[in-house]
Amino acid sequence: MVLRLRHFWLHNSLQTLAVVRFQPGGHGTQIHVTLRSRYYVAAFLTVWLSFVVLIGIVILSASLAGSSHFEDLAFIVPFLLFGFGFVAFGRLLARPEAPALLEFIRLTTGAADMPSGLQALC
Fold first, then answer.
1. CA 104, CA 83: separation in Å to the nearest integer?
2. Which residues are CB-contacts of 34 (< 8 A; sequence separation ≥ 6)?
3. With the CA atoms of 112, 99, 39 and 111 taken in that order, what torsion angle do they form, in degrees rounded to the nearest 10?
4. SS3 assignment, position 90
5. What are the pLDDT digits (tens) for 59-102?
6. CA 97-109-30 angle, 5° bins
7. What is the pTM of this model?
8. Considering only CA atoms, which of 29, 52, 45, 33 is closest in space to residue 110?
9. Where are the domains of the chain?
């Protein structure tokens, strides 16, 4: 089962998804929860940031070799900042979602013995 919070006024592709698997256990049902983002969003951001970092390295090495100017780096820096800023802003908006999803799962399933150290890593 895949769960996500629905926002009426905000559509955030970086929102947290809770993938829930149920398995029979020794004293009842074991619930395994994986918190993640959508795969296509993670793939796009990985390709975007890798491409921009690679171009930045090429321009920097060409500048150090003398075949290019350091001013060429000013062209790539906004793309790099946009990529990291987009990820940071999206994760900031999605920050309260993981605890809310875990609480919903706990209340819905009646899980009484949740580990006390369980926290969402977002």
1. 32
2. 18, 19, 21
3. 10
4. helix
5. 878 878 877 776 777 777 787 888 788 878 877 877 777 788 88
6. 100
7. 0.58
8. 29
9. 2-109
